[in-house]
Design a protein that fits this description.
By secondary structure, this protein is mainly alpha-helical. Helices cover about 60% and strands about 5% of the residues. It has 26 helices and five strands. The protein has a five-stranded parallel beta sheet with strand order 2-3-1-4-5, with helices on both faces.
């Protein structure tokens, strides 16, 4: 009788598990949750019941709870790559980059065999900067898809092909990228992110472009994000054809709905800039430096789209320099140092707390957080442009680190920022929804950099994009000399390297040095007049 009762309980558990999985597959989260709770009453250590509860919690916006629950599932099934990949994805969304990468590496080491897990893991590893491992995940998943061992749903397959395309683009395999994007669009014709990715992949011509297809999709725009992606795709293609008036009209249309939805006001950023200047003044800068004497980090800072990726590639072509990417590590460690909650932005309270906290230990904590991606070369590059906001703190915490700031013609800087579609979940880029806000932000950026020059003279090396284009070797030699690195001729051969480039400049940087972006703003004619007046009134032009 006892054996019979155990068998009945086991049958109940299996049935409840199947019912929970079926409810999840159909999107009935409430019923799935009920089945999981019933299952856990019978078997409190049922790992997959806990895992499904974690997914349900995440779907309901309870991210911290979801992380806690999935960690419990891993406690019962530590060798599940699926659980670890999902946990890593949630940790990444929570801004816990180190832990996310750790879970991704553990999942990868467990050699996952499911296409869904490989897709999740590839996306996670790509966001963590492990691009070669990410590509390996997608290619293994592609093999399973070809064998019919993957979900048949068009939505899943479209997502997979798009994620694989992103990894291929980073690897520089542009023909394969285009093929995967077209596969995405065959499954999901209104995937506007995919349309933009395809438009950005190469220069369009009168004989080969997608303008008619894109114009035909305007009626199918569902929300401001769709409009952003579609409008940017149209602007890119019209610009390629030399139709600058049309390109500007598309950009204005693209950004209008998102601008209205967000309600951005530069006054908040202006207040933040003034707050930074008042907190980290000359008196603060004169206080004792941090206790980390490492010369490993080279920080490339500045406004986005000013040549930061170009300079990163020149430097990282050196045998002693590793490009670690656009690391969020310093802002994250700074927030923790200041006692701010995870994921908090660098707001006034966080910065005030940071200014009042001795920096001893912060530099080492930052370095430790970059491991194991760094530590295998004499130097590594941290290329997060918006670290210009905390350049004084970086110099204080890491007094031997190098700070390199890219400067570019103000009009070209503002236009290039306006032309770019940045990550929508990153609040620091919201200024780029309006061309004049780009100008206002540039004025604030320049003011901050002047402040750092006054409070820590000689600590920031300014390199001008136009000078690099005009005399690459001489400017590169001066840059390496500032960084204390001996010259190597291979630094001029950066565009021929088989390396991953994970920024919007992934296509352009492999073209080598070109001058077509210098004074691009003049091609846009009268549309640039209000911006020119704004910058002229601020003293940037006569």
């Amino acid at each position: 009788l006892e054996c019979g009762g155990m068998k009945a309980a086991a049958d109940d558990i299996r049935q409840l598990h199947r019912q929970a999985q079926a409810a999840m597959a159909s999107g009935d989260l409430r019923r799935a949750h009920q089945h999981c709770l019933s299952l856990l009453k019978l078997d409190p250590k049922h790992a997959d019941a806990w895992f499904l509860c974690g997914i349900i919690a995440a779907s309901n916006g309870l991210r911290d709870k979801a992380i806690e629950i999935i960690r419990r599932a891993i406690g019962f099934a530590p060798d599940s790559p699926e659980y670890r990949a999902e946990l890593g994805k949630m940790l990444l969304a929570a801004g816990e980059l180190e832990q996310a990468l750790q879970e991704g590496e553990r999942a990868f080491a467990l050699a996952p065999k499911q296409a869904t897990t490989l897709n999740t893991l590839g996306t996670l590893l790509s966001h963590c900067g492990e691009h070669e491992c990410a590509l390996a995940c997608f290619e293994q998943a592609a093999s399973l898809v070809a064998q019919g061992k993957a979900p048949e749903a068009d939505s899943w397959r479209a997502d997979f092909h798009f994620n694989w395309a992103a990894a291929l683009r980073i690897a520089g395999r542009f023909e394969d990228t285009a093929d995967q994007i077209e596969r995405t669009l065959a499954l999901d014709p209104v995937n506007f992110r995919a349309h933009l990715a395809l438009s950005s992949l190469q220069k369009q011509t009168p004989q080969a472009n997608h303008i008619d297809r894109l114009e035909g999709l305007k009626a199918q725009v569902r929300n401001p994000r769709d409009q952003l992606n579609l409008g940017h795709a149209l602007a890119k293609e019209e610009e390629d054809l030399g139709h600058y008036d049309r390109a500007m009209q598309h950009l204005q249309w693209a950004k209008s709905a998102q601008k209205e939805a967000i309600g951005y006001d530069f006054a908040a950023d202006r207040q933040l800039f003034e707050h930074i200047k008042s907190l980290f003044d000359a008196n603060w800068q004169a206080q004792a430096d941090g206790d980390c004497d490492s010369a490993e980090p080279i920080f490339i800072i500045g406004m986005p789209r000013t040549g930061t990726t170009l300079v990163e590639q020149i430097l990282s072509s050196h045998s002693q320099v590793f490009a670690a990417g656009e690391l969020q590590n310093f802002p994250i460690q700074l927030r923790r140092w200041a006692g701010a909650p995870p994921g908090a932005t660098l707001d006034a309270d966080t910065l005030a707390a940071a200014a009042a906290t001795p920096v001893a230990g912060l530099g080492q904590r930052y370095l430790d957080s970059t491991r194991p991606r760094t530590g295998h070369s004499a130097h590594f590059i941290d290329k997060l442009p918006l670290n210009f906001l905390v350049a004084g703190l970086i110099q204080k915490a890491l007094p031997r680190a190098k700070l390199v700031c890219l400067r570019r013609d103000p009009m070209d800087t503002c236009l290039s920022n306006y032309r770019q579609l940045f990550a929508l979940n990153f609040p620091y880029y919201r200024y780029n929804l309006d061309l004049l806000d780009c100008g206002r932000y540039y004025i604030g950026f320049d003011d901050i950099m002047r402040h750092w020059a006054e409070t820590m003279p000689g600590k920031v090396y300014n390199i001008v994009y136009e000078d690099v284009v005009a005399d690459t070797e001489n400017e590169s030699r001066k840059l390496l000399d500032f960084c204390g690195i001996d010259w190597e001729d291979q630094c001029l051969d950066f565009h021929n390297r088989q390396t991953s480039v994970a920024t919007p400049s992934a296509v352009q940087v492999r073209q080598g040095i070109y001058s077509s972006s210098v004074e691009r703003w003049r091609r846009y004619g009268d549309a640039m007049e209000p911006l020119y007046k704004l910058l002229s009134d601020a003293g940037f032009y006569p």
